[in-house]
Write a structure and sequence with these properties.
Helix content: 25-40%
Low-confidence stretches: 1-12
Bound molecules: ligand T4K
Order of helices and strands: EHHEHEHEHEHEEEEEHEEHEEEHHEHEH
Strand content: 15-25%
CATH superfamily of the largest domain: Type I PLP-dependent aspartate aminotransferase-like (Major domain)
CATH class of the largest domain: Alpha Beta
Strand order of the largest sheet: 2-10-9-6-5-3-4
Largest sheet: 7 strands, mixed
Number of domains: 2
Number of strands: 17
Length: about 400
């Protein structure tokens, strides 16, 4: 765990000392090694390493219970899950999505031979703005792919109303939203299906992995076939499909991590509170956090920096923090609409996406994971205060 070299010199006015070890944006949840070993021993005993084995089936059942969803299908990554969803729902033409997301969201659309169409975002939730949907939907739009950025829910009611009116499917990228709930109801229950990422950097992880959560029982076999080469049984291959299975080793890690998740969530709740206390003292920096009735996904500590009030730009803060050995991240800058292979799209025009461009210039994700100590958060906040006072000087 990173430790400060010395706590002396951190008082107001003096430049805080840098951390002696890099402070990363996140660290993975890792279960006690003996818990993982015990599960691996079970796998060794069966000599069954993949192809929907016992660990895989057990993890799907436990995740379905955790998410209060009828069905959960595991995949080797969140991206693979998203591609599978787009394929199985037999989409055509274009898919409307947000430019303010990880590249995987938009790349999944193009990987399926579909055309991405960018829609601007809401300045508060940072998710796709449903009021802008009518401006970008066309006759060939077959779906909306919303992203619950930083676990903040999309306006699912408005998106799904618009989609129903036009006969469009709705898929959510819930890579950040594993534990987001609205009024206690799991967010995963929205739309035709929701993708979850279990990458190492996510609240719940299987090192690499992902899932689709969905309610329609008819989709269960379709998602099974799509990740099993279309093989129904030894005598029948009834559709095309890919290898979209999660190995028993990854599933075993997931089961061990699921047992460790409660403690990680409690720790992250404390870290969140320490941040909110510390950041509340600094003008011009606003945490992106859930507001009742939404419960926080505890995935990222995202903040928006107002350079005029804070005294320094986001980029100056990012550079300044690096000088303190703090590796914050600019998720999500650049916008997907700025990538060379998407910037020619009509919907990628800068003037069509004013909110997304403004947010991408001001967003910063600070270190956030359960292993952080109160003193470390106070120090990061002092570093931010110092950068504000000195207008970003390092
Ligand atoms: N949709 C959205 C909205 C997403 O955010 C993502 C993924 C996806 C879809 C796709 O889901 P997957 O197909 O990945 O399941 C990371 C993750 O690789 C990526 O999964 C994630 N979003 C994205 C937001 O963050 P990078 O390029 O920032 O990762 P990296 O390697 O720089 O890691 C960040 C920090 O985490 C490191 O500085 C140190 C720490 N770290 C990382 C790893 C991998 C560790 O301490 N241990 C580790 O094992 O993309």
């Amino acid at each position: 765990m990173p430790k400060r070299i010395d706590s002396a010199g951190a008082s107001a006015g003096l430049r805080p000392l840098a951390f002696s070890q890099p402070m990363y944006v996140t660290r993975p949840l890792i279960p006690p090694l003996q818990d993982f070993s015990a599960r691996l021993a079970l796998v060794w005993g069966t000599a069954y390493l993949t192809n929907f084995g016992h660990q895989h089936r057990t993890l799907e059942q436990r995740l379905a219970a955790h998410l209060d969803m009828p069905h959960v299908a595991l995949y080797p990554s969140g991206t693979a899950a998203l591609v599978s969803a787009l394929r199985v729902l037999e989409l055509q033409g274009s898919v409307v999505t947000t430019p303010f997301t990880f590249p995987a969201t938009v790349h999944a659309i193009t990987a399926c031979g579909l055309q991405p169409v960018f829609c601007d975002i809401d300045p508060v939730t940072l998710t796709l703005d449903p009021d802008r949907l009518p401006d970008v939907v066309t006759a060939d739009t077959s779906a909306v792919l919303g992203v619950h950025v930083f676990g903040q829910p999309c306006d699912t009611v408005a998106i799904e109303r618009e989609a129903a009116d036009r006969g469009m499917k709705v898929i959510y990228d819930g890579a950040h939203a594993f534990d987001t709930r609205i009024d206690g109801r799991p967010l995963a229950a929205s739309g035709d299906c929701t993708m979850l990422s279990f990458h190492a950097t996510k609240l719940f992880n299987t090192a690499e992995g992902g899932a689709l959560a969905f309610g329609d029982p008819l989709l269960e076999q379709a998602f099974f076939l799509d990740r099993n080469f279309g093989i129904l049984n030894e005598d029948e291959v009834i559709c095309s499909g890919i290898n979209g299975k999660l190995s028993e080793l990854h599933a075993a890690l997931g089961l061990a991590n699921l047992d460790a998740l409660g403690a990680e969530i409690s720790a992250r709740e404390r870290v969140r509170r320490w941040y909110l206390d510390g950041l509340g003292e600094i003008d011009g920096i606003s945490p992106v956090v859930a507001v009742h009735p939404v419960s926080d996904s505890l995935q990222y500590m995202a903040v928006l920096i107002d350079p005029d009030v804070f005294g320094a730009s986001r980029d100056a803060v990012y550079d300044g923090l690096r000088g303190f050995n703090v590796f914050a991240r600019k998720y999500f800058h650049p916008l997907c609409s700025e990538f060379p292979h998407y910037q020619q799209l009509p919907s990628a025009a800068r003037e069509a996406l004013p909110v997304a461009h403004s947010i991408a210039q001001r967003i910063l994700c600070l270190p956030f994971y359960g292993g952080l100590a109160e003193g470390e958060i106070q120090t990061i906040c002092r570093m931010l205060g110092w950068l504000s006072d000195t207008k970003g000087r390092r």
